[in-house]
Amino acid sequence: MSTELLVGLGLALVLVPQVFMYAYYSALIALSRRKSTPSVPKIAGGCQGLVSFILPVRREPLKYIVEACRHIHSLGLPSYEIIVVSDDPPDVKDEIFKIVERLRGEGVNVWLIWRSEPRGFRAGALNTGLWASIGDYVYVLDVDSRPSKNLFERALGIFEADGSVVAVIGRWEPINRNTRISQALAYGLELLVNILYSVRSKLNLYMYPLGTGTLFRASVLKGRLKGWDIERIQDDMEIGARILAQGFKVVYLDDSPVYVENPETYRALRVQQSRWAYGALDAAIARFRHIVFSKTKFVVKLDAVLYLMQYVPQALLFAGTTLLAILAIAGFEEPPWSALLFVVWLVTLFIFQVASSKLKVASGERLWYRLVQAGRLSAITTAVSPYVAKSTLKALFRLKETYKRTPKGAYQKLFSGLRPPVELILGLFFAAAAGIAALRVGSIITSLWLLLSSTCYLYVVIRFPRDVFYN
Fold first, then answer.
1. CB-CB contact of 11 with 445 (8 Å)
2. What is the pLDDT, as a whole number, of residue 318?
3. DSSP 8-state code for residue 407
4. How far is 396 from 284, CA to CA, in rounded Å?
5. pLDDT above 90 for 370
6. Whole-number Å distance between alpha carbons of 232 and 35
7. Taking the mean position of all CA atoms in its chain, how far away is CA 115?
8. Could you give the CA distance from residue 341 to residue 19 in angstroms, rounded to a whole number?
9. For the chain, what is the mean pLDDT?
10. Is residue 366's pLDDT more than 70?
11. In angstroms, rounded to a whole number, what is the distance separating the alpha carbons of residues 260 and 284?
12. How far apart are CA 25 and CA 34, in angstroms?
């Protein structure tokens, strides 16, 4: 392979997946503008039914447990139970038991199950709660999420009206914007929810359940699906693929918010994105045949597979950028068509920005605020790409990954020791490679891309130094 083709391969790894992603999302947005939001039956007064809330906890801030249980009680549902499933050490379990006793004294219908031998991580805890529950419907509750009463009122009516519906999903909304990270992620969350759920729902594409924010029909969850697969760490995507294979319906409610807490630190974001990237591709590989052989339209199957591969472009971004840096230092020049590929990337990015601007993102915020958040989101997304790439490779080669919970509350600011400053090393490496490439007339695009990448890594180092240098 010629040296120019090697550089071209690096640019292709970086730009082609992004071009496809921007073009695909832009097409979905454009097509959805001709569609109206799917009508969902509304039953006056909703319907009766016991809702079982499963609250899996392990190293969670205790006050979060209290607040989550009180929130569910405050919704005023006709009938509910909360099952706290703890994988904590005995001393923490004892503290949670005291909390549960106090909450029951307040009238909160909450119970505690302690797993002395945690198996199956989060999915195992969910199954423990599922088989102990007695409700007609099951809702997985994260300690940092706050579902609205409207979701349950609407969902219970839907279940009563259509027996083929097995899950109803609410709309994720950010609950916190108090740090630079959470502000950028709030902007990104609103954008992604619009594209991955609001837009796709209008086009009658398949809706994957959310890890928290989905009400399930318990009889199907227990009977046909046999609970969650404890071999998979991304429980929502895994069970979503099996629901599709079984031919059941999943309904998305754009007007029923579920407020969720975004990571507030770069360190917490690293943990979250690494787990999600592994879990998504792992589910895609493990459940590929379930999707392919499901009795649904080819377009729906294709989109369902692409949904599970949403982190692959980010992994290829890091792989391609690293390859470009190595080739630039080695003195390789880029092919003459590099500029054309870069222009295509810019055009599709512009089209995507225009298309997404029509969506309800950061409503009420000024243009400058949205631009700042978009730039910040781009920087931190680039900076976590090495970890996404590592997780993607582990999933691809079927290597087991340990489930790591996203640190919440005070746990986000606890550090265990020094770590190699990966972001600083990569930032300086890409900057040096950009400088070397800039000295050659035939490597302008390579130099420009490496410089942009370096800026993203160094931004994270400057803004979040403790998260970069400490675990």
1. yes
2. 98
3. P
4. 10
5. no
6. 35
7. 27
8. 9
9. 93
10. yes
11. 25
12. 15
Query: Residue 360: what pLDDT?
Result: 66
Judge whether residue 327 has pLDDT over 80.
yes
Tokens of 386: 């090495």
The residue whose two tokens read 């969720």 is: 260
Per-residue pLDDT tens for 59-101? 999 999 999 999 999 999 999 999 999 999 999 999 999 999 9
Q: So what's the pLDDT on residue 365?
A: 65
CA-CA distance, 428 to 65, in Å (whole number)?
Answer: 42
- What the block records as the tokens of 232 is 């998979």
Euclidean distance between CA atoms 466 and 265, whole angstroms: 10
Helices (H) and strands (E) in the chain, counts: 19, 8
The two tokens of residue 229 are 């697969």
Residue from 63, 117, 261 nearest 181 by CA: 261
What pTM value is reported for the model? 0.94
Evaluated on CA atoms 273, 150, 152, 37, the torsion sign reads: negative
Beta strand residue intervals within 241-384, DSSP E: 249-260
CA torsion sign, 289 to 290 to 294 to 299?
A: negative
Cα 273–Cα 275–Cα 278 angle in degrees, nearest 5: 105
Q: Give the number of C-alpha atoms closer than 13 A to the C-alpha of residue 48, restricted to the C-beta side.
A: 2
Strand order, beta sheet including 214-217: 110-114, 80-86, 51-57, 137-140, 214-217, 165-174, 249-260, 145-147
pLDDT at residue 411 in the model: 83
| Residues whose CB is less than 8 angstroms from the CB of residue 317 and which lie 6 or more positions away in sequence, other chains included | 13, 14, 17, 18, 382, 385
Judge contact between 141 and 238, C-beta under 8 A: no
| Separation CA 78–CA 50 (nearest Å) | 8
Decide if 179 contacts 94 (C-beta within 8 A).
Answer: no
**DSSP states of 179-246 as a string?**
SHHHHHHHHHHHHHHIIIIIIHHHTT---PPPSSSEEEEHHHHHHTS-S--TT-S-HHHHHHHHHHHH
Name all domains of the chain by residue range, CATH numbers in brackets: 3-32+310-469 (no CATH), 51-182+204-260 (3.90.550.10)
- Strand, helix or coil at 2? coil
CA distances from 187 to 112, 115, 254, 262, 351 (A): 36, 37, 17, 11, 19
Residue 40 predicted with pLDDT over 90: no
- What's the rounded Cα separation, in Å, for the pair 470 and 396? 28
How many Cβ atoms from other residues are within 10 Å of residue 416's Cβ?
Answer: 7
Of 263, 259, 208, 282, whose CA–CA distance to 384 is shortest? Answer: 263
Mean pLDDT of 156-169: 93
Higher pLDDT, 463 or 38: 463
- Cα distance from N-terminal residue to C-terminal residue, the chain: 41
Residue 143 in contact with residue 115, Cβ under 8 Å?
no
